[in-house]
Amino acid sequence: MRAEDTYKTIASPAKGLFKDKGSKFIAYAYPVKNENEVKEHIRVLKELHYKARHHCYAFRIGKNGEQYRANDDGEPSGTAGRPIHGQLLIYELTNILVVVVRYFGGTLLGTSGLINAYKTATSEVLEQADIIEKIVTDIYSVRFDYTVQSNVERIIKEFDLTIVKSIYEMDCTYEIEVRKNHTDVVAEKLKKVEGLKLTLRCEG
C-alpha cells in the first residue's frame, strides 16, 4: 500500500505502437508538471507528425490527478481521449501526458475499434515506460544565525533532508526539501532553534 504522500509517474519519455487494419497508432508518454509542458510536447509532435490525421491525448497533473483533460482531436466523441485517460487511471499514474498519433489506413474502425486502438496503444507505451514512485515534498526557507548552524544541521541529518539551496551572508539561509508527512514534526523541531525563521516557500 502506497503512503499518502507518494504518487506514481514515469521517469522519462516512452514510445509505443499499435496497428489495426492499416491504421498506425503511435503512442508517446511524457512526464509533465504543468500545462505549459503539455502544450509544448503536443506542438512538437504535431510538427513531427504533420501528415497524421489525429493527435489525441490525455494528461493528469497533481498528486491525485486533480488537473486532467482528454482530447479526441477530431475522432468521434469519447473514442480516443477517454480511453487514453482511462489507462492512466488504471495504471494509477499522474504528472503524465500520453499523446496517440494516428495515421489513417483507409479502413474505418468503428466506435469499438477506435476505443480499443487508443486504449491498446496507451497500454503499449505505459508497458514500455519506467514507472516510478515519487514522494510529495514541501520546500522551506530556514534563516538562522551561524551560532546555531550545528543545531540546524543536526535536524537536517536526523530527518535526512535535502538542502536545495544555501545562502551565506550576514546570517545563513537554507532552502530544504521536507517530505509532506514529516513537515509538522520537522517544523516543530526547527522552531525550537533560537532565533530561527521558518517560511514555507513551495508546497508540494
Strand order in the sheet with the most strands: 2-3-6-4-5
CATH superfamily of the largest domain: Impact, N-terminal domain
Number of strands: 11
Question: Between the first and last Cα atoms, what is the distance in angstroms?
Answer: 21 Å
Annotate the secondary structure layout.
Layout: E1 6-10, E2 14-20, E3 23-31, H1 35-48, E4 54-61, E5 67-71, H2 81-90, E6 96-103, H3 110-128, E7 131-135, E8 137-144, H4 149-158, E9 162-168, E10 172-179, H5 183-191, E11 197-202
Antiparallel strand pairs: 1-7, 2-3, 3-6, 4-5, 4-6, 8-10, 8-11, 9-10
Helix pairs in contact: 2-3
Short description:
The protein is an alpha+beta fold and 204 residues long.
Folded structure, characterized:
With 204 residues, the protein is α+β, with helices and mostly antiparallel strands. The protein folds into two domains: 6-134, 2-Layer Sandwich (Ribosomal Protein S5, domain 2), CATH 3.30.230.30; 136-202, Alpha-Beta Plaits. It contains five helices and eleven strands, in the order βββαββαβαββαββαβ. It has a five-stranded antiparallel sheet, sandwiched between helices. Strand 9 (162-168) and strand 10 (172-179) form a beta hairpin. The mean pLDDT is 95.
Kindly list the characteristics that best describe this protein.
204 residues; 37% strand; Ribosomal Protein S5, domain 2; five-stranded antiparallel sheet; 5 helices; alpha+beta; 2 domains; Alpha-Beta Plaits; four-stranded antiparallel sheet
